[in-house]
Amino acid sequence: MTDIRTRDFYYELPERLIAQTPIKERDHSRLLVLDKKTGEISHRYFYNITEYLNPGDCLVINDTKVLPARLFGTRTDTGAVVEFLLLKRIDDKRWETLVKPGKKAKIGAKITFKENLLSGKIIDILQEGNRVIEFEYEGIFEEILDILGEMPLPPYIHEKLSDRDRYQTVYAHNLGSAAAPTAGLHFNDKLLKEIEKKKVSIAKLTLHVGLGTFRPVKAEYIKDHTMHSEYYQLNEVEAEKINYAKKTGHRVISVGTTSTRTLETISSEEGLVKAGEGWTDIFIYPGYKFKLVDSLITNFHLPESTLLMLVSALAGRENIMKAYKEAVEKEYRFFSFGDAMFIK
To answer: Which residue range forms the structural domain that includes residue 84?
Structure first.
């Protein structure tokens, strides 16, 4: 399977099908159900997901929380407006950032942010062009960010988000993502309670989603693509829930590609996990043998993306491309604020 081409994962998508805003009720998005063994497709709504979950199954969710990581500042010497996107925290005051326009962010440039709650200085330019900024502030940085920051919506969303909570899952807890684990956006508290009533366990892990998730695959052959790295955590209690489901012959159902990548990174060949933390750069594409994940709840992904390759590894490329073609024909909503798919 080493000669798979990136273009094998291309599909036509009318721009009007790219969801620009979330729908009113989280669990009222549409749900395409795909049987990975037969290729059979059915069309439901997300609130029907409980019909596909069985007592003893373990649903694994990613409880990362998105930082309001987009900041707009002003250069103190020229008055030019500079946009910063926080990518990675280096220490209490220093962050690796993506800057636009980069030419206005030379080493030594000083930046002030509105309401004078925050100021900063560019102290380094990294190899790929990202800047390191050292902030000065009083109080708690996250509280300042909550006041000044905007949600870092994906590049294909052009509408302004009126309610920033709609780009967070209802169970978001651990602050640190540059993008939301969007498969989880369809759940509300009521639906989660219904799932627990069915005796389905819900296990939480954390994977902080990086902007690399939107990085296009430019290599002709997918094996030549370099995957980005993301930080994960799983504690003992949650690991035991996952292992119990496996040991008792039940399914592990992953919510999102982020949970899937974490689970497959930490799984043993026997399909069991250990608590821990670290960084994963696992790249899952057709030919990969899954050790742990049995089923997947996911959104519809960009053409030629690593995420589309991951779901193709689980369900088969032909099944996925057929399902996507049908989703386009039936005018499903695509990407972050779009509809969902259950690969059973």
So the answer is: 70-148
Question: 């790219």: which residue's tokens?
Answer: 18
Count of other CB atoms within 10 angstroms of residue 80: 15
Q: What does the pLDDT read at residue 1? A: 59
Q: Do 274 and 139 have their domain in common?
A: no
pLDDT digits (tens, 9 = 90+) for 149-182: 999 888 899 898 989 999 999 999 999 898 999 9
Q: Examine the domain organization and report whether 189 and 142 are in the same domain.
A: no
SS3 content of the chain, % helix, strand, coil (to 5): 30, 30, 40
pLDDT for 3 equals 86
CA terminus-to-terminus distance, the chain = 24
Chain segment 21-63, per-residue pLDDT in tens: 999 999 999 999 999 999 999 999 999 999 999 999 999 999 9
Residue 139 per-residue DSSP state: S
- Same domain? 333 vs 223: yes
Query: Helix 306-315 vs helix 256-266: angle between axes, to the nearest 10 degrees?
Result: 70
Number of Cβ within 10 Å of residue 232's Cβ equals 22
How many independent structural domains does the chain possess?
Answer: 2
Q: CATH number of the domain at 94, please.
A: 2.40.10.240
Tokens describing residue 158? 């052009």
Tokens 């119990």, located at residue: 244
pTM of the complete model: 0.90
The two tokens of residue 251 are 């399914």
